[in-house]
Each structure stands twice: as C-alpha cells, then as structure tokens.
Design a protein that fits this description.
This protein is mostly helical. Helices cover 79% and strands 0% of the residues. The chain has one domain. About 16% of the residues have low confidence.
Length: 91
C-alpha cells in the first residue's frame, strides 16, 4: 500500500527538482542584466512584483535573443525574479 505512495512522492519531487534545475550562472546573468538596465535598484523594488516581472522578462528576452542563455526562459525568469524579490526584501 505504501509503495505506490512513495513512488508518487518521489516522482513529484524529481519533477519539481528538474523544474528548478536552472544553471545558476544563467540566473545570475538575468539578475545582472536587470540590475544593469535598472541602476536605481531601489526604484525597481518600489515598483513591486509587477515591475520586477517586467524587468526580468525584458532581460530574459534580450539574453535569449543574443544567444547568451540556453535554459528554459520562463523558468530562468521566474527564478531570477524570485532572487531579485528576495534582494528587494533584504534577503
């Protein structure tokens, strides 16, 4: 009875881990591009999640267009946006 539950749990954890398995260098490249395009980082933080999301999307699109990132753009943008949000909150 417990074996199917364990298998389901392991599969779900593996899928979650794969979804988060972005190259840290690419995430850092996105955050650097956002900061470069927004030198007043505090002003970006004051725009809240929508401002961070737009800036991150713009950065990801630019880096994809330049061929500088190879990972999943949506996942990279999400992870970079979360990282920037933590920095805005002082974390």
């Amino acid at each position: 009875m417990f074996k199917p539950l364990v298998l389901i749990a392991c599969t779900a954890l593996s899928a979650s881990a794969l979804a988060q398995a972005n190259d840290p260098a690419e995430v850092d490249a996105v955050t650097a591009a956002v900061k470069s395009a927004n030198p007043d980082f505090k002003a970006l933080c004051k725009q809240g999640p929508d401002g961070i999301r737009k800036a991150t999307t713009d950065a990801v699109m630019g880096l994809v267009g330049a061929g500088k990132i190879k990972g999943n753009p949506q996942a990279l943008g999400g992870e970079a946006g979360q990282k920037l949000g933590r920095e805005c909150r002082g974390g």
